[in-house]
Write a structure and sequence with these properties.
Blueprint lengths: L4 E6 L6 H14 L4 E5 L6 H5 L8 E4 L2 E5 L2 H19 L9 H4 L8 H16 L5 E5 L3 H31 L5 E4 L2 E4 L2 H20 L4 E7 L3 H16 L6 E5 L19 E3 L9 H10 L4 H9 L2
Parallel strand pairs: 1-5, 1-8, 2-4, 2-5, 8-9, 9-10
Antiparallel strand pairs: 3-4, 6-7
Helix pairs in contact: 1-9, 3-5, 5-6, 6-7, 6-8
């Protein structure tokens, strides 16, 4: 099944991730690519950039271009509901104990933000498989790091739950599966749920490590931005997730900029400072047309450094 190429823009708050995301999305759309730009940052800026009110549901803002600002609270509530429904279904035999009275504590669970954002991302992939590009304007670095490392950490934890459940079944001498013909059907609802969750996170890991997925840092030419960029590259690399490129925003020349030991030998992509505010599709198009980097080079430098 066709899936879009994914570009994540990550970086320190204030480096211009939203603007770089919008420029990339507009440039790709102008070339006839079906493109979606979605903001996962709670401090949404895309509505201001495109001068139109954007909401959770994607809206067309230019030919071939959809844009959305993901409602994080909405996704948290959806995740909590899905969790409650799953628990009720799995432990239906405990309904007499009024489980609803215990569910309120779920909203205080750590990690809800990253779980909600991961869910929003996977929903976009599922609902819009015919896109050529899906571009994500990510939240500041700390939450983005949790977002990218969530699948591997969750899978490791779930694998331990799976092992524990298998041991429980052995000790209780429960037959976990029953064979009909050549197929095995699970009888342990808890184990089935654990396996489904494990598969979900394995698939997410594969997406983050897919060659068609690009994680690009947006940086400014200042000490704080460069230090955070270097730390983020190092921290993600330790989780076997690799930054493909660095986009230097409001920088006119790559001369003297660090390479951060990224793959490839291409010069860093520098987005020059605009003399006028980059708000509205006309301003974005004017900037793209007047820039001395054509759209093909732009995308190549981001996704294939």
């Amino acid at each position: 099944m066709k899936t879009p190429s994914v570009i994540f823009y990550v970086g320190k708050g204030g480096t211009g991730k939203s603007t770089v995301s919008a420029i990339t999305a507009m440039a790709l759309a102008k070339e006839g690519n079906k493109t979606m730009l979605a903001s996962l940052d709670a401090a949404h800026n895309l509505s201001d950039i495109f001068q139109t009110r954007l909401v959770h549901k994607p809206k067309q803002v230019a030919p071939n271009l959809l844009a959305a600002e993901i409602d994080r609270e909405r996704m948290i509530q959806a995740f909590l509901k899905e969790t409650r429904d799953s628990i009720k279904q799995t432990y239906s035999y405990l309904t007499a104990f009024n489980l609803d009275s215990y569910f309120n504590i779920l909203k205080f669970s750590p990690g809800l933000e990253e779980y909600a954002l991961v869910k929003a991302f996977t929903q976009l992939l599922e609902k819009y498989p015919d896109l050529d590009y899906l571009i994500l304007d990510m939240p500041p670095t700390a939450l983005s790091l949790k977002f990218f490392t969530l699948p591997a950490l969750s899978r490791t934890w779930i694998e331990q739950l799976e092992n524990l459940r298998n041991e429980i079944n052995k000790k209780k001498e429960i037959v976990a599966t029953v064979r009909y013909g050549k197929k095995e059907h699970g009888r342990d609802k808890i184990l089935n749920r654990i396996k489904a969750m494990k598969e979900y996170y394995i698939n997410l890991e594969a997406i983050f490590r897919n060659p068609d997925t690009t994680i690009s840092m947006v940086a400014n030419n200042d000490t704080l931005s460069m230090s955070e960029t270097e730390r983020t590259i190092r921290d993600l690399k330790s989780s076997n997730i690799h930054i493909k490129s660095v986009v230097w925003n409001r920088v006119d020349t790559p001369k003297g900029l660090p390479g951060f030991n990224l793959p490839g030998k291409a010069a860093p992509l520098c987005v020059p400072a605009s003399k006028t505010p980059l708000t509205g599709t006309d301003a974005l198009n004017t900037f793209i047309n007047s820039w001395d980097v054509d759209v093909v080079t732009l995308v190549q430098k981001v996704v294939q450094p």
